[in-house]
Every structure is written in C-alpha cells, then in structure tokens.
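Consider a typical record:
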Amino acid sequence: MTDYAPPGSGRGTGDPGDPPGRPPTFTSWLRSRSDEELTALLDARPDLAQPVPADIGALAHRATSRNAALRALERLDRFTLQVLEAVVALGDDRLSEPVGAQPAELAHGLDLTPAGGRGTEALDAALDTLLSLALVWPDHGRLRPVQVLRELLPHPAQLGPPARALLAALPHEAVRRLARDLVPHSTASTPVETVATALSDPARLSTLTAQVEAPARRLLDNLAWGPPNGTVTDARREVSLATAASPVEELIARGLLVATSDDTLTMPREVGLHLRSGVLFREVDTAPPAFEGRPVPPEAVARAAAGQAFTVLRAVEELLERWTQEPAAVLRNGGLGVRDLRRAAQAMDTDEDTAALYLEVVRAAGLIGTDHRVAGEWLPTREYDLWRERAPERRWLLLARAWLGSDRVAALTGSRDAGGRVRNVLGPGLVRPAAPQSRRDLLTELGEAEPGLAPDEDSLMARLAWGRPRRQSPVYSELVGAALIEAAALGLTGMGALAEHTRPLLTLDEDADETAARVLSTELPQPLDYVLVQGDLTAVAPGPLVTDLARELALVADVESTGGATVYRFTEDSVRRALDAGRGVADITGLLERHSRTPLPQALRYLVSDAGRRHGRLRTGTASSYLRCDEPALLTELVSDRRAADLELLLLAPTVLVSGLNRAALTERLRQLGYHPVPESGDGTMRLGRPEVRRADPEPSTAVEGAPTPELTRAAVRALRAGDEAATVARVPVSLPEGGTAGSRASAVMEVLAEAATAERRVWIGYTDTDGRQVSRIVEPSRVDGGFLTAYDTTRDAVHRFAIHRITGVAELAPSD
C-alpha cells in the first residue's frame, strides 16, 4: 500500500521551512507540493485558478471553500467518493482515535483486504486522486479530510456524528447521569470524555449491546446501515439504567442512541461502526459496471458519423442561403415562430426537433443573429460568409465546439415554463447550466467503450450513475438523454458509438482541433466537380460539390431532392434567375458543358437559349412605370393580351408603354404572364444582379468557457509561487518617516528604491492596486523617476510600473541561511 509520508519528503509534516514544533496545516502541505503537483491540481480543478490566487494561502482558502469543494465532489466516481467518505468517517478529529485515517484502516473499512478477495490497488489510485484534488492531505502517516467536508458530508457512509460531538450538545446533568451508569469509577476529566471513551471501546460496546432485549437489538440493527436517525416522541426524556422501561429507553440509557432534537435520536458513529464490524459500506464496487450493447464495425461508425456531419453542413447552408433572401421573423420574446420553424425544417429536409437543434447550434456558433429592427428578422451574420469559405471539416468542427460549449437545450423547444408559456426555439427558457457538462460526461463515457461496441442507453446511464453519483437527478438524466440524441444528429456519434473524429475534442490537447479535422477530412465525402445532366431537364450531383460549382448550379437550377445524391431541376424561372444575375446564355451552357459527365440534352439547350432570347426584350421603368421595347410588335401583342387588362397599359409610342402600377408590381405581373422583363435605370441601362445580401451582427457568445490551456496553468503556478514568496519571505522593514508631508514619505521611498536599483538587489514592497487591494510584491528595481518605479515584478513575470504614492511599505529581503 502507498506510503503517504515517506521520510524526508515533507508530505506528511507540512512545509519543511516551518519552525520546529509547529503543527502541520493544509496550507503548509500545499506549499510543499511540487510545481507539477500544483499544475495537476489546477488542471483538475480549474475554478481554483479563476482568477489566479495571490499566494498559496489564498489558494488553500479557495480550495476549502464550500462551492469549490462541491464542484470537486461532483468529479468523483462512486468508489472514490466512498473512499473519501471513509476518510471523513475514520479521520474526524472529534473521534477518540488520533486525527486522520490510516490507509490500513481505510482498506479494512472498505473490505479491500486479501482476506476479502480484493487487493488495495483501487484504493491507492482513489487516494492519489483525492490527494491530487486536495480533498485530503497527509499528516504524519494519516490522511485528513479538509475541514469543509464535515459540513458537506454530515453522514459519511450513512453514519452519525461521533459520540463526543453528540454528547457535547446534551445538558450537562444528562451526560453526568450517563457517565455514572456506564463508568461509575471513571478517571476521565469530564463526563463527555468518560462516555465517549467508553463508546469507543469495542469490548464495552459488545457488553452494552448484549445487555439490551431483542426488540431494542432489532431497532439497533435497523439503524446500523443508515440513516442513523430515528424519530420518536419526547426524545430528550430523562432515562437511566434503573428507570429504562422500553426498547428505546434501554438504548438511550446506555448511550447507544443520543437525542439530537425533541423528536430525533441519533446513533453515534462508534456504535454504527461496531455494529457493522468495522465495515463502512454493504457494497463496494471498485470499477464501473460493464458495458452492454451491440457490436458495430468501426468503419461503419465512421461512415455513419461522417455522413451525418455532411448532412448537417448541407442543411445549415441550405437554410442560411434561403434566409439570406427570405429571413424569418423574430418573435416579441426573441425566438422563432412555429411556422418559421416548420419552414426551416422543410428547407433543411428534416423534422422540426432536428431543425430546432441545428438552429440553436448555428446561433451558438455565431452564424445567425437578429437585425435589431422594430420588426426584427433572423439573418446570417458576417461570420457565416467566412464559415462558408472554410473546408467542410473546419465548418463541422465549429458547429461541434459550439454545441459542446452551449448551455442551451434545443430539446426543450415546445415545452412550457413555470408560467405556462411555450418555449420557442432561439427564445428564452432553453438555458440549462448543466448541459455542457452532461454532454461531455456522455461522450467521455462513450469513449470508454471498446471499439466495435455501441452501448445501450441503460448501460450508459448505469455507468454515468457510477462515474458521477453526485450529479444524478431527473434533470441530469433528461439532459444526458437529450445529448445522446443530439450527438447522433450532429455527427459526433455513429450507430450509437463515439466517432473517432470526436475523441480529440474531449481532451485538453492543444492540437485537438487539428487532430479532429485531420481524421474527419478522411471520412467526409470528397467534393466533386461534375454532375450528370439528364434528358428530363435535371442534373444529378452524386456527392457534395465544390463550392463554386454548387453556387453556380444553385443559381441556374432548383434543388428538387437531397439525400445520397442531390437532384437539380432546370426550369424557365431558374434559368431566368441566372440571367437576372448577369449570366449570359453562353455562360450557362459553358458551365454545364464543362462540368457535366453526360452530353447536354437538346431540350436543355433550347430552354436556355429560348429564355435568353426573350430575356430583357421588355424593360420596365418608373412613370408610375413604363415599358420600353425595341420590337413594336411585342408591345402591340401585350396591349392586346386580355390577361394584361389589370396593368392599365397605354401606348405612348411604338416602343413605349406606360402603366398605372409601380415598376416592381409591373415586373412581377409580367413574369407571371410569361414575359421576361428586366428593370432599367434612368439612363436606359438594364439593372441586373441578385438581391442585396443582408447580414446581422453576431450575438454575444453564451458558450461555457473551456478548461485553461497547459501554458496558462503553468503560468498560474509560477504566479502562485512568486506571490507566496512575496507573502512569506523573511524581510527587514526599512524605516520610513511617519510624520511630515506625503511628499517627504514619497521621497524616502524613492531614495530606498533608487539605492536598490543601483545595487541591483531585490526588495519587498507593499502595494495598493487599482482595485484597492493590499498586495505584496518582490521586485527588482531598474529606474525611479517621475513618481513611478519601473521594476521586474516576479509575481507577474514581467516589467511593471508602480506608482510611488501607492507603495505602502518597503523591506529588504533577509539573507537566506
């Protein structure tokens, strides 16, 4: 078993620099940790370094605060939590035993002995974890829990408080009566000490439990494995061995149950341990339950996940391109309406639940936002234009990172809040702070499965319950269930197993994104630069197209269906759309001839040339509007067309008509009648081009910050060491004038610092920073002028300027022995 206090290591005796005879403390143990161990602590508990503490004392205070300790407990698996509870139960300083628990006692309490058929390797690993998290610390060969755990784990292993703590809360006379009955001739200093010593003696406890009748013994057995409290009437009744008349009174008279309120009796910890024969838990599982699921080929998992990732990219781009032209309205609460959600699902060729997920993810990625007008609209942002130009694997990576860090849960769309209001996608009410952690928990657990196995949901939940017992709740289970569905819909998993391109995203590796992109790039379908044009005026893209071809084809044809292959249909309207955007007949036919693996059918050539021949023969202007044409016969035909009666046309000249409609209405109506007008400007030139592209400003990110990088953690450790040196270094104060003006004192400070700069020696200064905090710094002065000290600050590991009037004290560093 691991020795937690090797001779000369300082790990069990506190800081080697402490004066002889000073009791070890948690702070001195932290100070004795190596830089690597402190780095591991900040990696495991990143909240301790946000912001970086001023010194080791501040780190110790933060590490033992209630909130920080609660966050650390949430990271423990069931076995490690049981080990911690054992340390708390056996290492309580209110027990009669010495402070702290020995590893051998923990092994016995957890039934991890060769006699029990199990070794202590798992115990050693759990204790190393607790030490690395600074939840326990060694003291002369024993392990002590940090003090706050007594409050956070009031009933460790379902045991009650130590007898000494329970007896100290009783009236003095009641304890004296109990001491006289149990130990008539005690030599202990106080009645509490007398009774607590008696209850800590296994032989005395065996005698006391043997004295009670069968009903009282059954009551003890019912409380032995917890909870240690029982409810009765008049729990504080006066009882002695001579007057005990009921099973409960028998136990009260012997100190086996102690009143803790008017109606509650509690079994002391020593009694519970004795009844359990020193074993703390009925069941101790040192490893999580085995995975159960179905076998799946790893290559099938990769194909399924990569295919879904490609589907996500295509769906998102299809929707945002449509929203560029036809934005969706913003509800008054800031969300998206049900009808617009339904339209978005149709545009992305998916169901509404998946559409809601995609919308939440693209918003978290900063690809959509609102235009902040009175009648707001959801629009793509400028970030979308940059995103669209990236490689497919990079585009997916941005969406995956956004989902992992977002605290919004799309699965809540359509549910009702406490006020009965429906939650809309992109609206309020979808935030769940625990969502990012539940997603990482799920994916990390999936990553533990053997390659080729897709775990079933019950198996995953059982392992999560073992791995994160402190997080278990109905809300957590709901979040994990939603994350399982969302991960599959986004391509992080395939066929129920974790995809290889997802694994790097769960690590702290600096090159995680590069690794994930490299893996995914080999799995995604490679973009094609060709299509198959068919005789029914359609073109089939058998896979994803290169960006330029996809854009041009979307301009000249309409998407008819998607799936493994995309089918585009050429129509008169789609060809006219390309002509309106400035493409000519030769441009369109040239594009299709270059990129089609099949000959262009004659019908398609006729369609394009016919549309091009008629395109622009009519031109609309503003009269209210006018029509101008170089072919008088066409205008005569239009005036005679009965369908155009509502246009209020009047022939002004053989080549000019005027209308009572405005130009936009006239142009749209003529297109409905089968003509192909184009607008023109005041100088008679045609106005071709696509509609104006509008963009929204990206919204502030709500993603949860990830863990700090290794460089930041190492820098935090260096700052901690420097700050601790400044706070604890031996120093000789420099006398400064107490009276006189502020200027005379500043002059004295500048003189001392100038001398230190000349001698090139370090000094200690007390300083009031801009936030009003009093801090200590060890600096190497280089220049003093203009009311400022320029010096190398060891805490910040950088040159810094200090205002002289903020320096509260100066001291020379005492020479080291």
